[in-house]
Amino acid sequence: MENWETYVRKVVPYVPGEQPCGEQVIKLNTNENPYPPAPGVLRALRESDGGKLRLYPEPDCGTLVRAIAAYHGLRDDQVFAGVGSDDVLAMIFLTFFNAEKPILFPDITYSFYEVWADMLRIPYQTRVLDAAFQIRAEDYYGENGGVIFPNPNAPTGLLMPVGQIREIAEHNRDVIVVVDEAYIDFGGESALPLLGEYENLLVVRTFSKSRSLAGMRIGYACGAPKLIRYLNDVKYSFNSYTLNQTALALGVESLRDEAYFRETIAKITATREWTGVELAKLGFLFGESKSNFIFARHKSVAAEEIFRALRKEHIYVRHFSGERIRNYLRISIGTQEEMETLTGFLGRYLGQL
Length: 353
Ligand code: PMP
Description:
Layout: E1 26-27, H1 39-46, H2 62-72, E2 79-82, H3 84-96, E3 103-106, H4 112-119, E4 124-127, E5 147-150, H5 162-170, E6 177-180, E7 201-206, E8 219-223, H6 225-236, H7 245-256, H8 258-281, E9 284-286, E10 293-298, H9 303-312, E11 315-316, E12 329-332, H10 336-351
Parallel strand pairs: 1-11, 3-4, 5-6, 6-7
Antiparallel strand pairs: 2-8, 7-8, 9-10, 10-12
Helix pairs in contact: 1-7, 2-7, 3-6, 8-10
Residues 84-86, 110, 150, 154, 180, 182, 206, 208, 214, 219 line the site of 4'-deoxy-4'-aminopyridoxal-5'-phosphate (PMP).
């Protein structure tokens, strides 16, 4: 018998990393920034006028869009803002991936892509990363309904050179190509300069990682004005008021302090390199990360075992169950002190096995 349940849009949801409560945790499981946002952001937060909360925020996110455009040397009509890049990406899937042909993304990548495709009934095919977990550009040259990949890729942390992104864009001029640059600030070369050449390209960014604002939920896409217009049409058909007033104001403040931004990134990348050396000494194997995490397996001990041992110590890292990656751990880069605690514990733990 049919009942309402037959017609439910049934989905297998994305599983976000745990957000454990309590101060005693070393949290290296969701690629958050271990440092606070810029001082100007904190000041603006303290001084924000609560009385204004009775008003709706700007529907076009204008102040933030203009600040982002100026920051990247783009026109205002080349920027679309959303509630974290997850919101921006969901809007992109909804707006542009609407063909009968499958969209393409890597087999090992941000697991949300598959969830949006399933939820929105977008056909998709995955392309297998090579043995070193690199994306092969030529896998994306055939006919398709659109292409999306992160650069650096997640959870591998590996970077694709911009030349290869250009090749992918060049071979896909009739569909939308999306480069998800959530982690690009940690050492990658951005595809933003390609926007002048390719009107079918979208570059997606977030304030969650390099700008320490995961809790504020600010993301954006950059692309040709026509693409941004189509995105806004869908957004206004879904929810006109996306970013809240505080997020808009704090996003602008964050962009003002380039020195703090650079300094924080320099600390994280230095700690990443230090952690890599230590993990290698302990028998971990991994590729060259250009992100704020390291995706590593141990030469002899199973990832799940290490994961559980760390957990007992209140050190949280991320473990995925996918077939090719279940023996890997994704370890976010915390403060130098946190990483010393991690490697110190791993040294003792692996030494006594
Ligand atoms: N893209 C990738 C590749 C990510 O890893 C993440 C973080 N989970 C996001 C997008 C979304 O980040 P946010 O919504 O915080 O901007």
